[in-house]
Amino acid sequence: MEIKLFTGNAHPDLARRVAEALGVPLGKAVVDRFPDGEVRVRLLESVRGDDVYLIQPTSPPVNDHLMELLLLADAARRSSAGRINAVIPYFGYARQDKQTQGREPVSAKLVANLLETVGVHRVIAIDLHAPQIQGFFDIPVDHLSAVRLFARYLQEKGYTENGVVVSPDAGRAEEARRLSERLGLPLAMLAKRRHGPKDTSVTYVIGEVAGKRPLIIDDIVSTGGTIRRGVEALLLAGALPEMVVMATHPVLVGEARENLSHPAIREVIFTDTIPLRDGGYTVLSTAELLAQAIRHVHTNQSVSALI
Ligand code: R5P
């Protein structure tokens, strides 16, 4: 089985970087729109019997990018691909992973169903918003993490001195713990309450942060409200105004830039799972991680070693 890589319009630069790292050319495909706005897809080369990897984060505009991915998978299945792997560096629709109030959908489960229905055999994702999303699928899901990338960068920059790793809410506690262990630093956590899609507050700071430099790790920065309130709570608890913020997925909507421009934040670090149009942030590439995962899957080697 040959490796074949394709991408939609969500992040062609990342797909090219993965292709370069693998030494495999990106497959040719048309992914555009019919005059009425419907997504049009056509693979311009044979995938018969091939090991196909569709590289497409479901980043905003999420519906368009998700639909492109589904249609690419459908095209590959109908063209007799041997295996179809959806490489979804940022998995959108992940934040509705349960019914928090009555009469809500579980969007993450619906997306999992859709991907399986179109014939995807495997998903490769980075830092799913909720790890249990892996269990929403009945196919293998290789769940990669950016923690190693962040740890290496923080060490190179010397940010670990007098540092404390901070989880901005209970949901990130596990990643924060892994980062703190990797760096040999203490761990703190904020007790966050969400009052609405854009409104959060911090009720407690759990752990010792006074006189320390917080290294805040989250999966997503969307409006940046979580980070801004977290920074304010940490300052009130006596933390140093030299904080480092890192998040895997720079969704960045609304007032994100203002919220991230807080004077107590020294550096904001993202990965390239989503294209960044704004400057002023540090971006660590996930291309090599994704390429390694593809190589391991293709040759039936363990992917756990990469996580
Ligand atoms: C929430 O549980 C996530 O881990 C992020 O903290 C959240 O999605 C960030 O959203 P925002 O930037 O809008 O506060």
From TrEMBL:
Reactions catalysed, as given in the entry? D-ribose 5-phosphate + ATP = 5-phospho-alpha-D-ribose 1-diphosphate + AMP + H(+)
Q: Which domain of life is it from?
A: Bacteria
Q: Which EC number applies?
A: 2.7.6.1
Top-tier EC class: transferase
Name the Pfam families for this protein.
Answer: Pribosyltran, Pribosyltran_N
Instruction: State the UniProt keywords alphabetically.
Output: ATP-binding, Kinase, Magnesium, Metal-binding, Nucleotide biosynthesis, Nucleotide-binding, Transferase
Q: Which residues form the Phosphoribosyltransferase domain?
A: 148-239
Q: Listed GO molecular functions?
A: ribose phosphate diphosphokinase activity
Q: Where is the Ribose-phosphate pyrophosphokinase N-terminal domain?
A: 3-119
Record-linked SMART domains: Pribosyltran_N (SM01400)
Q: Which family does it belong to?
A: Belongs to the ribose-phosphate pyrophosphokinase family.
Q: Tell me the NCBIfam families matching this sequence.
A: PRK01259.1 (NF002320), ribP_PPkin (TIGR01251)
**Protein name according to UniProt:** Ribose-phosphate pyrophosphokinase
For this protein's source organism, the top of the classification is: Bacteria, Thermotogati, Deinococcota, Deinococci, Thermales
